[in-house]
Amino acid sequence: MQLFLDTEGRLREIKVFTRPTADGRGSISFRTFIIEFPFSRDIMIDPGKLLAVETVKQNKYLLLEVVDYLPLHYAMINLDGNVPKELRDEIMRRVEESWNSSESWIEVYASPVGYILEIQDGEIKFSKGYIPPLLGSKAKLFSPDAFEKFIFYEDGVNIGKVVNENVDLKISLRKAIKYHIGVFAYTGSGKSNLTALLVRKALQTIPELKVIIVDVSMEYAILLLDQLLKLNSRLITLDRLPNNDIDAGRRLIRTHVIPEELNDYREEIRKAFEKLYTQDKLRKLYIPPQGTLYLTYGQLIDMIRNQVDDKYVATAQKPFFLMLLQQLDKLMRERKLTKDDIVDDNINDLLSEIETKAREANLRENSAIFTFISAIKSYVNQEPVTTEEYDIEALAIEALDSSQESPRLFIIESPNMDDARLIVSLLIEQIFMRRKRSYSSTPTILFVLDEAQEFIPFDTRQKDNSEASSNAVEKLLRHGRKYYLHGLISTQRLAYLNTNVLQQLHTYFISTLPRPYDRQLIAETFGISDSLVDKTLEFDVGQWMIVSFKAALKEDIPVIFKAENNLIELKENLKHG
Ligand SMILES: Nc1ncnc2c1ncn2[C@@H]1O[C@H](COP(=O)(O)OP(=O)(O)OP(=O)(O)O)[C@@H](O)[C@H]1O
Q1: Best of 162, 169, 192 to mutate for ligand 1, by most ligand atoms within 8 A of CB?
Q2: How far is Cα 382 from Cα 261, in angstroms, rounded to an integer?
Q3: pLDDT exceeds cutoff 60 at 291
């Protein structure tokens, strides 16, 4: 395999740019390398291409990614308005004629990607790091074959084409999902299309995976309609269910966003919706009016503290309440429980132990401590209320069911954000609780949250349920991996997102983000240069930059690609389905 292309350039200069960080608290520097290549009108140097330059260490090269380039002509370097007009015109006329001469070159701007390439006895090795390059030394362009071999996993899933390389982008979807995914782009850049594509490919290639999409914009039932039909699935709504298949077809067509490109497919879509009804895949989700119905460890601790502080509780009982707190703390540490976890019968032994001790101390039978303990005991030991309704619990049970015939794709539709936040918080908590109670690595569950800034906002408020959803999503992203629970979140405004969670996402897909703050934040979080992130401003619809940290790609190098259009396979399947 040819590692480098024949075209070579030379490293002329390194410039360092420093700017304040997005939060204004510090500063950050980026290096831009300036490399000269021979002038050619069909030069293969486009943004995203990889270059290797010699470093001060023998056989070691620094890897750079092309950000931009500019053809330059020596005669133009000092040409400005000070030169008399006639002379200027004459110079420019001559330059126009002599671009293909020794006076011209292509100036390439590139950023280091944090890698060293070592070539020893024909063996090639990548390692992370930075070694100062040798000015004046050669810069070599990676061949497409080398690009493919070193950056992508051989058995990766193809999700598009690398821009300017004629190479398929192959990613490890399994790893990407394992370490959570972020999709960041302005409205209309193709976020939903890419998300649907990733979900589609993941369901096709990871048999133990289940996907739960919380859809506030009523898009995914269409974007994944063929998958809803093909797989065992659920399309879940908070509204009354339709009475028959005809009613279902009409209603669903009316309530969903149909992309323009699918205008010719309205009939197929209506029929597919009718079929979902006859396949018994529609469900109405019941949410209890009082919202959360569970006692969490945090709430229990508060209740005990109130007893300790209560001046009407006899002093003799207070040590027992304190003991209860200590034992709870021990249990929570041992079982790695958080304040948001739901209290279950795990705490029975602990309650009995304190009860016995209180009895041994001869406390009166009607003491507050006995009443308190027995109330908590009867709460945790109560029989679950069984209802016919499809509620969060039923949904969680289906999602965690590892049998072949259980549903794999769940789309929960809730255009009302408050409801959506409540569903997200209850569902994540419920699934966590069940997974912790009976630990299993299957199925793996991926939660997909569009408009993530609504679920994990920068500012949370209790009354619109954002505090609850924020806690739940943060827990999913921080601790989910241990429990085979994962997240894909997408947003158009990073500024409104609780950015603490960004570090938890190891694979980012970025397209056009018009606000500088959003781009700067991405650049800082992933240590990629501003100029590379700024490239996304020029992206066409469906064009993305994937940045991964030890996840989707073999090496953590930002790659610019054009995503496959999710609608192509959808149309194909609707036509033949
Ligand atoms: N990879 C792609 N190839 C071709 N067309 C695409 C691609 N991705 C998106 N599109 C088209 O671009 C348009 C916008 O895409 P999409 O709805 O996914 O954007 P979005 O970012 O989710 O927008 P919004 O935030 O408004 O939902 C759609 O018509 C879609 O079909």
Answers
A1: 192
A2: 53
A3: no
